[in-house]
Design a protein that fits this description.
By secondary structure, the protein is α+β, with helices and mostly antiparallel strands. Helix content is about 30%, strand content about 10%. It has 2 helices and 2 strands; from the N terminus they run H-E-E-H. The protein has a two-stranded antiparallel ribbon. The longest helix is centred in the last third of the chain and has 20 residues. The structure holds zinc ion (ZN). The site of zinc ion has 8 residues, from helix 2.
């Protein structure tokens, strides 16, 4: 007896035990504290979101971290724009080292 899931290859599909096991596991492991730390100390706010450190299909706990709602939103929107952002990122004009 198998369900109708064969052939489903959506890339962002979460595993069946995401809600029941993975998510609570990561939140508990991280103590319900946001693990966001960028250019500073760890955020530490109450976390109720579980984020993929490397976006994709890696649902191992090593690739998951607890985040607060605020930082999860930031990370998600940043990943959505990442490709474009990289192309259009403004770089300061570089001076030729020989022109000093
Ligand atoms: Zn946070």
């Amino acid at each position: 007896m198998s369900g109708g899931w064969e052939g489903s290859t959506r890339r962002d599909e979460l595993p069946p035990n995401w809600q029941s096991e993975l998510r609570p596991f990561v939140l508990q492991r991280d103590g319900y504290r946001c693990r966001w730390h960028e250019d500073g100390p760890t955020c530490g706010h109450h976390a109720n979101q579980v984020d993929h450190i490397e976006p994709g299909n890696d649902h191992r706990p090593e690739n998951l971290q607890a985040l607060c709602a605020y930082h999860h939103k930031i990370k998600t929107s940043r990943e959505g724009n990442a490709a474009r952002w990289r192309e259009t990122a403004r770089r300061p004009p570089e001076r030729h080292p020989g022109l000093i």
